[in-house]
Design goal:
The chain has 442 residues and is of the alpha+beta class. The protein has twelve helices and 16 strands.
């Protein structure tokens, strides 16, 4: 089959590239492919900031697919397989949904840095799913961006399974398929009492109050059904069928987790497992405040959704709460009145949020020192960013260097860290240290 040649655009502006990327990411073709969307965004963002030459199989494996640092691309072909699927998906996008697109994104075979081309017939790829590994593909990870989608293969098929029933303990998360790498000493040091094999850590996830849309008249979770407003029907039909004439209702439930909170729980589980630490996972509506007494614990969520987190942060200098003057949830510094406000794009979607890590260590007469960590934030993506930061050896080394400059030779017994998170369409793209506060403890 003959095809017309593809002409690469040599003078393509950053805005042109950004618009081409956003149209692809928000297309129907990529709608159900979270991991491929993350892959595409990562390589395009790297190319736009001039780091396209640093895109190797190893980097993508660690930064996008969540492979442990030090993994062997020669033994794990997942990046090559995803790259093949991405090329196929882009070809489908421009041959069907975006046929008239002025600028197209192409990821050439044998490379990962994207090219931008003029509209032309783009030849189909006939290469097998597994490509030849790139030379130098075991290089170091990119420092500036770390979009974590370790759990998206799990989340994509299980968003509906976020509904927690009865005393569900999430024990299925124990089977997350990630090979444990050797634990970096900085992680063990930062996690303190939580890092001990016999710590028996309780992971407690806040379950915000939600209104779930479902068949009218269906009573579930102990809540009656209320009539759904007209605008609910079009939104409902975007992802699921609705028979003609069928009526929808609204049901209150406390059994739903945000995607970011789910990711934060998995990040913490992977870290505990790598340290050989036992754990239990419960929704907060099952694990009451009394269940936290005398336990090593990790709490996930925002104070507005959690009594335990509200009480824990009641006297802390930093907290997450609603600020009426900006009509947004913010990170508030009670000591000086500083507000960290999230940013949105022109469509009103969040692009920058903040996570908050709170570390508390106390003494127990029977068990010695106990630890509690709270991962909170603006939106569940902030909670996810907080967990990723506190599980990253690179981030923890950076934090410790800041603490050392202030005269702290080790991690304090109690402190808080604000984490700045770049965020897009439910995906955490990057996170970085913003500020910290050291707490006074008895």
């Amino acid at each position: 089959m003959s095809v017309s040649p593809v002409t690469e655009i040599t003078e393509c502006t950053q805005e042109d590239k950004r618009q081409a990327l956003e149209r692809a990411l928000h297309s129907r073709t990529f709608a159900r492919s979270e991991q491929l969307r993350a892959f595409l965004r990562f390589v395009c963002e790297a190319e736009m900031r001039g780091a396209g030459g640093d895109l190797t199989e190893y980097v993508i494996g660690v930064e996008v697919l969540g492979r442990p640092e030090g993994y062997s691309p020669a033994e794990d072909s997942s990046v090559r397989t995803r790259a093949y699927e991405l090329r196929q998906k882009l070809e489908k996008l421009y041959s069907t949904e975006l046929q008239a697109e002025a600028i197209r994104i192409v990821v050439p075979k044998g490379a990962y840095a994207p090219h931008y081309v003029k509209p032309a017939a783009i030849p189909p790829h006939t290469d097998p799913p597994v490509e030849t590994a790139l030379v130098g593909s075991t290089g170091p990870a990119i420092e500036t961006v770390r979009p974590q989608v370790r759990t998206w293969m799990l989340v994509a098929g299980a968003l509906a399974a976020c509904l927690l029933g009865g005393a569900l303990t999430f024990m299925g998360l124990r089977s997350v398929a990630m090979r444990a790498a050797a634990v970096d000493p900085i992680v063990t040091e930062a996690w303190g009492p939580l890092a001990k094999p016999g710590a028996d850590v309780l992971l407690c996830a806040a379950t915000p109050l939600h209104l779930v849309v479902g068949p009218a008249g269906h009573e579930a979770y102990g809540s009656p059904s209320y009539p759904a407003p007209p605008e609910a029907y079009s939104l409902f039909r975007e992802h699921r069928p609705l028979e003609p004439g069928a009526k929808l209702g609204l049901i209150f439930t406390k059994n739903v987790l945000g995607v970011g909170t789910m990711n934060a729980v998995v990040v913490a589980v992977n870290t505990l497992r790598s340290m050989g630490t036992s754990y239990q996972i419960l929704p907060e509506r099952v694990a009451t405040i009394s269940a936290l007494r005398g336990r090593n614990a990790i709490l996930f969520g925002a104070p507005v959704d959690s009594e335990a987190i509200t009480r824990t942060l009641a006297t802390a200098p930093l907290t997450v709460d609603y600020e009426p003057t900006v009509k947004e949830f913010v990170v508030r510094d009670r000591t000086n009145g500083r507000l960290l406000v999230p940013k949105k794009d022109t469509n009103g979607d969040f692009i920058e949020v903040y996570g908050l890590v709170t570390v508390l260590s106390t003494r127990d007469s029977d068990r010695g020192r106990l630890g509690m960590v709270v991962f909170s934030g603006i939106t569940s993506a902030g909670t996810h960013g907080a967990a990723e930061f506190f599980s990253s050896p690179r981030a923890l080394r950076g934090l410790k260097s800041v603490l050392v400059k202030e005269g702290n030779r080790r991690f304090p017994a109690a402190y808080q860290v604000v984490v700045k998170c770049t965020f897009s369409n439910m995906l955490l793209l990057a996170y970085e240290y913003d500020s910290h506060k050291i707490l006074q403890v008895e």
